[in-house]
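Below is one record:
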Amino acid sequence: MAPNDDALILLVEDDKPLRERLQRFLSDNGFRVTAAGDAAEARDRLRFLQPDLIVMDVMMPGESGLELTEAHRRENATTPILLLTARGSPDDRIAGFEAGADDYLPKPFDPRELILRIRALLRRSSAPAPVLDSQDTPIALGPLSFDRSRAELRGPSGLIRLTGGESALLAALAAKPNEVLSREDIAAALNMDDSGERAIDVQVTRLRRKIENDPREPRFLHTVRGRGYVLKPGA
């Protein structure tokens, strides 16, 4: 059994035959699974459960998967979210990432790819931050401090919650402060597929909202045109 295979997954899918097939497949691969047929049922589950990961369809009657993802993120939830949808255009994927999703899998898909993506997200959400020098030395971002050994961002008022994608991005940049990382380098560090480069831009925007006083004029997380991104720590 691979690491995190006993993780609890909340599966939200309105297509009952597909939901039942995916639930059996995930269970057969060692995951614990609880299923919901729509966003309202998923909300009921989330009142009592703390899943390790959410797999959710986008197009559902009533509240969509995008709307539920946005609402979940507004509550500072850090649970990794993998969206499933028949709409697989780049714009649709970016809309999912902007809503706060960590990954996006277009239908139809090979269930084996779903397993690979789930495991990658679980590894990313539980892995310690990569560091090149002393992991005991936190990264200063003005009044904030990023503990690379714990992958935790703290401010004067305490812990600042990051999504799995935001935390992984900050950890990758903090591992090489003042060094430009290309989108390809970051995508590889975050185990993203070839759609991940544009997703990184979205994650950068979301991360800036949490570490910058003015995200439009970033002090710490800079874009280097034509090259990528660089984190420049400072008090």
Notes: The radius of gyration is 18 Å. Confidence is low (pLDDT under 50) at residues 129-134. The CA atoms of residues 183 and 200 lie 7 Å apart. The chain has eight helices and eleven strands.
